[in-house]
Amino acid sequence: MSKAKTSISFGRIQQLAIPAIIAGIAEPVLSSTDAAIVGNLAEFGTESLAAVGIVGTFLSALIWVLGQTRSAISAIVSQNLGAGNISELKNFPAQAIFFNILLSVFIIVPTFFAAERIFEFLNADGLVLDLSLDYYYIRVWGFPLTLFTFAVFGIFRGLQNTFWPMIIATIGAVLNIGLDFLLVYGLDGYVEAMGVEGAAWASLIAQMVMAILALIFILKKTAISLRLRFPMHPEIMRLLFMSLNLFLRSVALNTALVLATREATALGKEYIAAHTIAFNLWLFAAFFVDGYGAAGNILSGKLLGEKNYPALVKLAKRVNLYNLGVTAILIIVGFIFYEPLGLLFNKDETVLALFYGIFILVLASLPLNSIAFTFDSLFKGLGEMGFLRNVLLASTFLGFVPVLYASIYFGWGLTGIWIAFLVWVAFRGLALWIKFRRKYYKLARTEKPPLK
Fold first, then answer.
1. Residue 3 lies in a domain
2. Does residue 224 lie in a domain region?
3. Of residues 128, 87, 355, 98, the one with CA closest to residue 232
4. Are 373 and 293 in contact (CB under 8 A)?
5. Whole-number Cα distances in Å, 366 to 134, 253, 269
6. 190-245 residue pLDDT tens
7. CB 287 within 8 A of CB 426
8. Structure confidence by residue, pLDDT tens digits, 404-447
9. Which domain holds residue 202?
């Protein structure tokens, strides 16, 4: 008897996307909350904001590079689910999680001992450098916890479930906000104000709680065992190849982010503070948009397993449309509340003037982000990691980097950095759209969908 085809109805997409949006925006809340709280310190607020921005960019780079295994795990699980082979993945989840944790250890050790040189490379010096190191040496220990949580999220996504990741991420975000206020500012007679170090402890504790909840939910809410057994599952090799391609892709992606931070820092502490505000809002919007992308990622892998290409094309159109609608709302909100958004992070007039000067470019990037991130998520679900790698390499080194250094030459300041971002996301979105049309539209015309 043939299997029922996967639903891509409005209701089903919302069922997956809305929890993914909530989980997604909870993710950057950890860094954004730290930035907003320390940026409003009465003493050294601008320097603290600059330090959190520098460290946040570096840690985000590491997390995005290695956290891409979440997408690879999700793609493998969802494709096997669609093909009816999910029972054959018995040993895969535990091995995939072990791989993620082992990878994090290999990264933490060298970066921990080279931290001062890394932040000096990012043009941090003086008090900003000292605060960066204070923040980093605490928060870095949350790195393996985050990768463990991401791996569990990948398993849930592959099983077509975004609800439990939403619960975990929301609890983590709320806890982080509460602890930030408590530990950064202190509580008279009870808790000593810790400043930047308090923000780092708040994030680390939140990451610990999220990892514990992820462990509990994967054991209680699924039939998956986390007992490590050998020999290696055959899909582990595909996970390694997918992860390698995503690793190279993320290196290219983070080259752009790190270079932008480095050049903003070189302009002065007020510039990196303004860039930190803009980047955190850009990141918040990006993860918001990525919620529908997550639905596309989850469903595309299952549709590929079913070889249901007509439904895959319809899915791409619908998710793009929904994401552009979300983007329109974000742009309207940004236009209305741009002044309070800046004041949320910092009160320094110079910093705010620089931020307001580039915020229009942040808003202009959002529709481009929507298209690029939607197709990026679809291609991850389809397992097209090699193509994603090539697109990021080309958009970074043929688009972002030349525009960035041309802007430095012409003295365009932060405006030039954000123009480079616009070119970068436009390049990505166009390349992915062309590839999808050429390959999957053709398959949709030649292949018949499975019967109900």
1. no
2. yes
3. 98
4. yes
5. 33, 17, 26
6. 889 888 899 999 989 999 999 999 999 999 988 877 888 878 888 888 888 877 78
7. no
8. 999 999 999 999 999 999 999 999 999 999 999 999 998 988 76
9. 10-446
